[in-house]
Amino acid sequence: MTPELHQTLGDELYAALCERQTVEPLSTRHPEITIADAYAIQQRMLARRLAGSERVVGKKIGVTSRAVMDMLGVFQPDFGWLTDGMVFNEGQAVPAASLIQPKAEGEIAFVLKRTLKGPGITAADVLAATEGVMACFEIVDSRIRDWKIRIQDTVADNASCGVFVLGDRLVDPREVDLATCGMVLEKNGEIVATGAGAAALGHPASAVAWLANTLGALGIGLEAGEVVLSGSLAAMVPVQAGDHLRVTIGGIGGCSVRFI
Length: 260
What we know:
30% strand; 7 helices; 5-stranded mixed β-sheet; single chain; alpha+beta
């Protein structure tokens, strides 16, 4: 792919985001697309968002759990960028009409107090650099029609970022076993998903270490003060207007979100 095509496809995905429309899979229209191409397209899409006055507040890791891998047919993790235009707070209402085909994931968010930059970052390094962890929702949303994605499609589409919702309790990660902590996700009062911290690449801190090392190879760090979403702990749950969701993670706390 040429740099010009990267720019064109990044602009197409940005327009789809703004217009709440979907596009046909990039991997179908351009079978030659590589993961490196997809990240170049992602960078163009991000640049358009930042030019519109948004700013980066963190990063996210996608496709970390076996349940999500099996659901999407994508079998390796990826990453995307979080901006201040994606942030919602505990209990806040998310307008469903602002999204296209949203699905909710229960996750553990890391808030960093020190910068992490690979190579050589370990899970222990991640824990030492973390101010606290909290329960969160990532509301993923694909600009690719009907979620018919390959890894290149979701990478190009900023790892299918939609919005995210942070809980209101920050916990020292050394006070909880992040691998064994259980997660319960309720939708409209019914339990629809369960999981544990180990679903995120064996340990959420290992997932963050993977991201720090992957970005480090590109000359990018996880910066102090940033939020890092460490990956879904269970299968994604479709949502629509009128739904109310709550996720509870043992030893960490909960997070609620409603859709209007």
